[in-house]
Records
---
Amino acid sequence: MTSRLAGDVVGGRYRLAAELGSGGFGRVWRARDDTLDVDVAIKELRLPPGMPETERAERLARAMREARNAARLRKHDGIVAIHDVVIDEGLPWIVMELVDGCSLSEHVRQHGPLPVGRAVAVAVALLTAIGAAHREGVVHRDIKPANVMLAGSGKVLLTDFGTAIHSTDTALTATGMFIGSAEYTAPERLRGSDGLPAGDLFSLGVTLFQAVEGVSPFRRDSQEATLAAVLLEEAPAPQRTGPLTLLITRLLDKDPGCRPTVDEALAMAGDIAGEQPATTVRVRRDTKILSARPKKWQPLGVAALMVVMTAMAVISALGVAGLPDAGETWEHFEHYGDNAVVSLAVLIAAVADVVLAGLVCAGFARFLPANVGKTVTAVVGVAGLVFGCGATAFAFHGAGEIFRNAMKLSGRESATVSLALISIVVLVAVGSAWISQRPDRRETVRCRTRS
């Protein structure tokens, strides 16, 4: 095999122009496709002279596997596309999409850590690409900053499937031989549980940590120390990750069962970005677009809407009952015992009920479509608040009248009972709404306890 130089033609059509990068297994060239008159990237497999035949055969098989696995994902916009594989002088050359940009590793080295906002976009793009690969049965196994391309157009692409494995692939690496980058490798893979999809998520966590902090969390002075750090040490506390801290922390969990799934991680990243992942990462035709939130949020939203509507119906019905003489119930508070402190406390509780019920009604603005103008949303919210305050005032009196007539209570007793009931309903509703918004926190506590 002769050493290739710029100007050489590979496969009868690809003219090498300049070397773009190199690694242990080969080099990547910028080349010109003389047939189509377009620029491409082409990967040259490196086989040093004197290499044992078994290792030579393994490298050839791995190169073909890389092309097959990447070709399975050629329709996905977040993965560098494979165009062709040509055999020249008995060796495979992989022809790929040429990305006008640099790797994430080069960007951090030259320009420093990414801002959190940009890192969130990178996380969404990589999670979408990883999800597409996993759905096709492909586990990348070597996600790291050097294998993430940042295109000048703003696209983020995952590349280099040289160590990837498909669910139908057979083992290529000899026992005791490790292929990959130790500092980005999941601890379970180092223990022998290879090819698990959760391992890619751990590697993504390390990649995002380095992208925002500027340093690799498990890199040490020697390979042995690095392996020990991945297996036994926790990542340093991040200083710059801001709202990404929870996502990165969960991705770096030593227990693969406690890491979020791709869908869960996408939902977390989408919440941080404040937009749907599909709006920041374009996916080509025939590729499923992942939703920003898990499906478990949909029934919760419907249930919340039904609860609010039921509460409004009850308040309105009670308010109708209190319309005939709305002022009488409030007069009871003016003579509520001889203790001025008690009278003041009861009045404060009554006013709080009115305000809280109004806020519940104003919450209907949350269910308006996102594209509705802010002015319309504000008007709906204010209208809900006004309606809620008025309706609750009448409902308070109506409840008192109903209890007094049904149970033959005194005016003071009926006022006390209705106040207590409305207070309980409002507090339960507010508490339930607050708890329902924190499922990720409960899941994180559960997983951290297990680990």
Note: The domain at 101-168+179-293 is CATH 1.10.510.10 (Transferase(Phosphotransferase); domain 1).
---
Amino acid sequence: MTVGKMSVSLDASLLEFMAHYQETHQLRSRSEVVAQALTLLRDQELETQYAAALSEWQGSGEADLWDHVAADGLQEETSAAR
């Protein structure tokens, strides 16, 4: 993993929160706090993008077409067949 270094200026209240979070979650450094925060932010952004893509796909009519072919070749098991 390649690591980069940067300088960040934060409001005092965010610095206090960071220190508290680091301590209560037993993280080794402030960098770990920032990495966790950015990972959560990235995951949230991906979730939003996936939801938008799904909505677009469902609105395009492709979902309806998929529903008609998704079970091709498969038969539902009935209670009589058991």
Note: The mean pLDDT is 88.
---
Amino acid sequence: MPCASMAERKGEGRGRGRWFWAGLILLATIHAAVAADVTVSGRQILNDGKRFDVRGATGDGPLPMLATLGATTVRTYGEDPGPILDAAEKAGLKVIVGLWVGQPRQGADYGDRAFVERQLAELQAMVEKYRNHPALLMWGIGNEVEVELADDSPAWPAIEQVAAMVRRVDPAHPTMGVLAETGSDKVKKLIAQAPSIQVLGLNSYGDALYSAASRARAQGWEGPIVVTELGALGQWQAAQAPWGAPFEPSSTQKAIQLRRYLKALEGEEVGTIAFLWGSKQEVTPTWHSLLLPDGVWLEASEAMAEAWGGQAPAENHAPRIGYLRVADDPSAPFAVWPAGDEGSFTLDAVDPDGDMLEARWSVMAESAARSVGGDPEAAPHAFPEAVRQSGPTGARISGLPAGRYRVFVEVHDGRGAAATANMPFEVR
């Protein structure tokens, strides 16, 4: 086999050199994309040295649509974050990856050394697996670990143990502790007993949102704050029917409140994460749902887009509900009628774009579940045969045995948006 000439060898060497340097450049590019440095500076979160404003939602709804609203961030709770990290990267979003810290109210025993070591090892494996993902923003350490405890002392060392591990294993991404509101001293306890936490997360709803940040500051928190769950009204805050059924605002009323809360929080310079970008049964199928199960969106999306400088999907407007009322008693907040009789409800709904509206009526049993901390609930039994007559201006309900129920209406515009309302009623 003939020997290569010196020139050929030099050419081969130059070719190998080009591949070598190209490989180094590629590796450097990949490294730069993977190793974005997220830091905390005063009350701000910095992504590669630039201010990063946390705004977004938690849930499993479509991320491209969320990004269109002007969101920057999606939050998870503790499931394997791989799929949502990949989806978020494609959508141009960052992820607050939740690390689920066992809750004592659910049986987590922090006196059990085996449990503690197993949990820490599992969470460390997750951090090691995803710490270099380019969509990772920070780690959410637990969610309301302190809730419903007469003695919350086990919660704080549990949070600190995980946060300290994360700081050691992944110093490039901050740690955030998530509390259910501030309480009278919960933030103080977090500061004193979990010093490895760098960002304060607060789950807060309704008018409590106006003062959540200032109450946290009053307890001594000086770093960044993210409202990690926010909504127009928690069911625990709502007025109730005599039998304990809380009154849910219509989607229009929720959007009005959401606009006010997002505006107030913008003035406080805190991050905002809406709950829930998807659908979830909690008291009702619509209470906290920002989307219907089929992906149809509600006016809350417009409120988010207005606050975040984005656009509503397809630049459409959702229908608005003026009222859902008891037909023969317009001021009544609930309905009651005897078994064998019927109830009648009236509806006023409009569409800002003039779209033709379709009203879909349904009846469900009143949920008996009153879960804590968003624990799973089964959907109540539905009674489709009870809707005897319905249309865009009202419905008549009959044929139900004695019991407690809700009438629901969804008003669709045919362009991917809807409005919702419901009212509790009793058949005696």
Note: Confidence is low (pLDDT under 50) at residues 1-32.
